[in-house]
Amino acid sequence: MPIEGGRLNAHKARQEDFRRRKDGRIKGDTIIRSKDNDKIDFEKVDPAKLKKIKSEIRSKAKKNRKIEVILIIISVLIALIIFYWITI
After folding, report:
1. Is residue 38 situated within a structural domain?
2. What kind and span of H or E run contains 6?
3. 32-38 long-range contacts, Cβ below 8 Å, gap at least 24?
4. Rounded CA gap, 57 and 63, in Å?
5. Cα–Cα distance between 22 and 29 in angstroms, integer?
6. What is the pLDDT of residues 23-81, one digit of tens each?
């Protein structure tokens, strides 16, 4: 079943429809951005609290990294076992 104008035109039309729909917008796309060079003022954080926040972030990152490495090792072992099983 041929598509009028080709598959690429159909794809482009779907993309344009998606961009037009309000509910299909990317989250944060409706943020009003200032055209001036306004600076954003953030809260001042106590150095002790900042140190605590940083340590929490680092511990979470370390935990996630360990999990990721373990999953990679397990997937490599499974791949090697399957490869060994096929070649026998």
Report:
1. no
2. helix 6-20
3. none
4. 10
5. 10
6. 555 555 555 566 666 676 778 889 999 999 999 999 999 999 999 999 999 999 999 99
Which residue type is seen at 57? I
Q: Which residue has the tokens 């026998």?
A: 88
Q: Is 75 among the domain residues?
A: yes
The count of domains in the chain is: 1
Q: Is 24 within 8 Å of 18 (Cβ atoms)?
A: yes
The per-residue pLDDT for 8 is 76
**Residue 79 lies in domain:** 6-29+43-87
Instruction: Tell me if 36 is assigned to some domain.
Output: no
Q: Mapped to the 3 state alphabet, what secondary structure does 32-55 carry? A: CCCCCCCCCCCCCCCHHHHHHHHH
Ramachandran class of 28: left when φ > 0, alpha when ψ lies in -120 to 50, beta otherwise: left
Instruction: Report which residue type is found at 62.
Output: K
Q: How far is CA 36 from the centre of its chain?
A: 29
